[in-house]
Predict the structure.
Amino acid sequence: MTSRHPNTQHKSVIDADGLQSLIGVLRDEGYQVIAPRASDDAMVLGQVNGIEDLPVGVRDEQDGGHYRLVPGGGRALFEYGPGPQGWKRYLYPPEERLWRARRHGESFTIEEDSQSTDKYAFLGVRACDLRAMEVQDKVFDREPQGDPRYVARRKNAFVVAVNCARAGGTCFCVSMASGPRAKDGFDVSLTELIDDDRHVFLAEAGSKKGVELLERIDRRPASDTEMSRADAIVSQTAESMGREMIADAEHVLARNLESDHWETVADRCLTCGNCTLVCPTCFCTTVEDVTDLSGAIAERWRKWDSCYSMDFSYIHGGSIRREGAARYRQWIAHKLSFWHEQFGISGCVGCGRCITWCPVGIDITEEARTLRDGEKDL
Amino acid sequence: MVHIEGLERVLQEHAFFAGMDDGYRDLVAGCAANEVFHAGTYVYREGDPADKFYLIRHGQVALEVYVPGKSPIIVETLKSDDLMGWSWLVPPFRASFDARALELSRLVSIDAACLRGKMDQDSSLGYELHKRFAPIVAARLAAARRQLIDLYGHPEE
Amino acid sequence: MTPLPAIADAAEPMVPIPFRIERTVKNLSDTFTVDLRPEEGRKPFHFAPGQFNMLYQFGVGEVPISISGDPQDPETLVHTIRAVGAVTQAMAGMKRGAVMGVRGPFGSAWPVEAVEGSDVVLVAGGVGLAPLRPAIYHILANRARYGRLVILYGARTPRDILFRAELEKWSSRLDTFVDVTVDRASGGWHGNVGVVTKLIGRGGFDPDNTAAMICGPETMMRFTIQALNDRGVSNERIHVSMERNMKCAVGFCGHCQFGGQFVCRDGPVFRFDRIEEMFLVREL
C-alpha cells in the first residue's frame, strides 16, 4: 500500500484471463496470493495459484448461528459474503514466535527473529475487511512503538478488493459506513459483472502499485455503462442489507455499563470466544514462554487470546471479570465504545461474523438496540 | 471536680462538641474531670463497669484484648482528639476491651452515671449525645470491618 | 512537562535486555528487592517515579513490576517483588550474579513535577509502598519545592511493614510527616492500630492545595479516596496506580484494558477524576 486514494483515471475492464494474469503477475512479483477457497464447507483463506483455485458459483447462507455454502448456479467467483476468517490471520498470525534466547552461564542472549519477510497479496478483500485492516493499523502501526512484524507484513501486502454483489445474511456494513463499496485502502478493486455472454471485472487502481500492476495485464478502458452497472450492483447490495447497527452505539454502550441487560445476555452467552476469533479487528493476545528440554534455549510465543477466558483478566489469585456478563460486556463495549476512545474509530466493521459464528446466535446489532431501547423505558 | 473553667474550654475546642448548644455543653462539663495515665497503665479493663467515657487530649491509648500467656492483641489505637468508650451508653454498661496508655496520656473523663441521669431528665440532651456518638460508632465499625479484610494484601493468595 | 522515559529500543519493544543482579535483599517473608545493573556496554537506565518494567525470568515467564529505586541513580535499577506466582517465586530464588531480562520503562508517572508548590500526601498499603518510593526519593531530593510532605502507610501487622528502616529515617526528618498503621499488633508495637484511612485526618495538609498519590490494592485505594474526599481533597488532586493483567506492556495484547484505557500505556498512574466513572463499575 503506497497510497489510499483511488484514482478514477484507472478504471478499466479485465476478463477471466485478465484475472488469471493478475494472479500470475503477483506471483511473479514474489507475492503469495491468498484468497477465500471453498474448503471444509466454508470459505477458508488459503493460497491460490490461479483462478482455477477460486470457488465458482458458490454462495453462502448466513444467519445468527448459521452458515452454509450453497450452489449459486452461476459462474460468479465472488458471490459469497465474509467467511469465518479475517485477513488478520496473515497480518497478525494466531501463533507467532517473538524471539528465541540462548542461555550462557548466568546470562542469556536474544537471538532475535528476523523481521517478517512475508509478502502476501490478498485477493477478494471486502470493504468491511479493508476497514478492519485500517482499524488494526491503528492498533499496531503506531508511533513510537508499533509491532514490527505486523507493520512489515502490512507494508509488503498487496490488496485486491472486491465490491460485494450480494449482501451476506448477517452483514451490516452500511450502518458502519464501511461498505459495501471499497472506497480506499486497496491497491486494486474489482467489481464482478456477469451477463449472459460476458464475465468481466471492472478494475480500479487505488494506489501506485495498483496502477503499475494493471498496466501489466490485458485490459480495456471501462465504458460508462459498465461503470454505472458496477455502481448499481453495489447500491443494490447496500439496499438489500438486512441488519443495521444503531446510531451512536458508542455512547449507548458507555451509558449502559451497569445495565441489567448484561445478565440476560449472559444467560445465553457460552463465553466460548468464537466472536473474538472470527472478528477481523479483535487483536488480543497472550504470550507463552517455553524452553527446550535442556533449558538452554527459551522462546517467547505470542498467541491469539480472548477476553472471554477467565485467565485473561487474572491478577493475584482471581480474575477481574468473573461473571460471563462482565466478559460479554467487555467484548461488545470495547468493540463499539472503548475503541473510539482508544483509536478514534469503532472496532466494529459490520461484517456480521460474530453473529454468524455465535453458537447461540447472539446478534451484536440486536444487543446494542436492546440497550438503547431500554433507555427509552426509563 | 477541679478546673471546671479550663474543662469547659477544653470541651468547647473538641470536635465532638462542635456546634453543641452551650447549655448542653455546660451540663456535660459538669460531669467532666481531668485524668492522667502513665505509659503502661490501664484506663479501664474489659468487663469493668463502663462508668465514664473519655476525650483524649494528649497521648495514645491502645484498645486491647488480653490473651493468656501472650502479649495482648491491640485492635485499635486512639490519639489526641479521639473519643474513647461508648459502653456507658449501652446496657449492661461494661467495658468491652482493655484500654491501656501507650505513653503518658492526658484525658478528660466524663462521668456516665452523672450524664445518664441528666439525659434521662432531658431527652433532647440524650438525643443530642446519641446523634454525636452514632457517627463515631459507625465509623469505628466500618474501620473494624476493613481491618478484617486484609486491605493491603490480596486475599486468597 | 518533561517527556517520560521510554523503552530504549523502540523498534522492538518485545525483546528483554539482560540485567545482572548486583544485590538481593529479603524485605518480608514473601517480598524481596533486587538491585540490577545493565550488562557491560549497555546504557544507564532512566525512568520516572511510578513507571514499571516487564521482568523476565529465563524460560519461566515475564511479569510487570514497578520500579522501586531512586530515579536519580540510573546506574542501579531497583525492583521490589512479592513472590506470589510461578515467575516471581522463581525470581525469589535468584542470587547475586544471576541475570534477569528487563523490558521498559513503561507507563505513566506520578506527577512529581506538576505538583511542585503544593502539599503532597502519599498513601500506601502493603507492597504498594514500593511504586511510591521513587516519588518519595524525588521529593526528598527536591524538598524545598514542595509544601508539607505526608507519608501514610498501612500494613497487615508490624511484621509486614515494608522498608521499615527507611520509614523510620524519613520519620526522623523534621520536614516530613510519616505515620504507619497496622490492622493488628501485639504488646510490642507502639505505633498505630487501625485502618490507614484513619491516618488521613492527622496529616495536617491543606486539602485545597494538596496532591495525593495512592498505591495499594484497589479496595484500599477506594476507601482512601473516600477519606481524602471527606477531608476536602478533590479527585483531580488524587492520583492512583492501577493494576491489571499485562502481557505486552505496549498496548498490543489487550489484557490490561480498563474501559477505554490501557493500564500499561495510559497508566498505571491515573489522575483519579479521569477514571472516576469506571472505577466503581464492577468487573470492568
